[in-house]
Design goal:
Length: 246
C-alpha cells in the first residue's frame, strides 16, 4: 500500500493542496493531527482531508479549536488564532474534529502506530530530546510510530549500546530509505507551518510492504496564504513566519 503520511496542516489550504498534488495517487493518507489552528482555511482543510481515504488522529490545536484545552497553555499568537478558528468552524468540521482519536494503534495498521505528540502523551508532549525519545519508545508496542507536533522532519532509531537503550537521531535525506531493522519514531515534518528553516511543505510517502520511506518537500504559494491570514485578522507574526520556515 502506498501511503501519504503528513502532519500539522494548520489550516494552510495552499500547502495541503500542493502536497496532495505532488504526492500523486496514493492508497491512503495518514494525518497526524493539527489539521486546524494558525492558518486561514480551517473548514476547507477539514473538507479536503475528508475527501481522501484517510486515517487521522487529534492534535493539540484541534483540541484547542474544540475548547478541550485551556488556552492559557498557548502563547498569545496561538491563542488568538485558536479563538479565531473556534468562531469559523462549521458544525460538520466540529463533528469531524470531535470524533478524532488521540492515537491509532489499530490492528489493521499492523507495524505502525499513529499519534500527534508522543505515544506517552498523545496530544501535548514534544519529542525533542533523548529523554523524551527514550520514554516514547516505551509508549507504543509496534515497530514504528509516526508522530508530528514539532514540525521538524526527523527519524529516531532505538538502539542497544552496552546493554542500554539509546536513541540515534537523523535528518532525513531526499533519497528513499528503508525503515528498520530497529524500532523507529518517524516525523514527516509539517505541511502548513514547517519550522526547519525551509518554507516548503513537508511530507513523506510510505510503502507499507517494502517499508521504503521517501521524504519530500514541495513549493506552494505561501504569499497567498500570508495575505489571507492578514486579511482575516490572524496574528501578523504567524503570517510572516511562513516565508522563513520557522
Ligand atoms: Zn502543530
Amino acid at each position: 500500500m502506498r501511503c501519504l503520511v503528513l502532519s500539522d496542516i494548520h489550516s494552510n489550504l495552499e500547502a495541503f493542496e500542493a502536497v496532495l498534488s505532488h504526492a500523486g495517487p496514493v492508497d491512503c493518507t495518514w494525518c497526524l493531527g493539527d489539521i486546524v489552528g494558525y492558518g486561514p482555511d480551517p473548514n476547507a482543510c477539514v473538507d479536503l482531508l475528508r475527501s481522501t481515504s484517510h486515517l487521522c488522529v487529534a492534535g493539540n490545536h484541534d483540541w484547542a479549536a474544540l475548547g478541550k484545552l485551556d488556552l492559557a497553555e498557548f502563547n498569545a499568537d496561538a491563542r488568538d488564532a485558536a479563538i479565531w478558528t473556534q468562531k469559523q468552524l462549521t458544525p460538520d468540521s466540529l463533528a469531524f474534529l470531535e470524533a478524532l482519536p488521540k492515537e491509532l494503534p489499530e490492528p489493521a495498521l499492523e507495524r505502525f502506530w499513529l499519534v500527534h505528540g508522543s505515544p506517552c502523551h498523545p496530544i501535548w508532549e514534544y519529542i525533542l530530546d533523548e529523554r523524551s525519545a527514550l520514554a516514547a519508545f516505551g509508549g507504543f508496542s509496534t515497530a514504528f510510530c509516526f508522530h508530528g507536533h514539532t514540525h521538524l522532519p526527523i527519524l529516531i532509531r532505538q538502539v542497544a549500546q552496552k546493554g542500554r537503550d539509546r536513541v540515534i537521531w537523523s535528518q532525513p535525506s531526499r533519497e528513499p530509505c528503508t525503515l528498520g531493522p530497529e524500532r523507529m519514531l518517524i516525523n514527516p515534518g509539517s505541511v502548513g507551518q514547517p519550522r526547519d528553516g525551509n518554507y516548503q511543505a513537508s511530507y513523506l510517502l510510505l510503502d507499507t510492504e517494502t517499508l521504503v520511506v521517501e521524504y519530500r518537500r514541495v513549493d506552494y504559494p505561501h504569499r497567498r496564504t500570508r495575505d489571507k491570514m492578514l486579511e482575516r485578522g490572524l496574528p501578523a507574526r504567524l503570517a510572516t513566519r511562513l516565508a522563513y520556515g520557522f
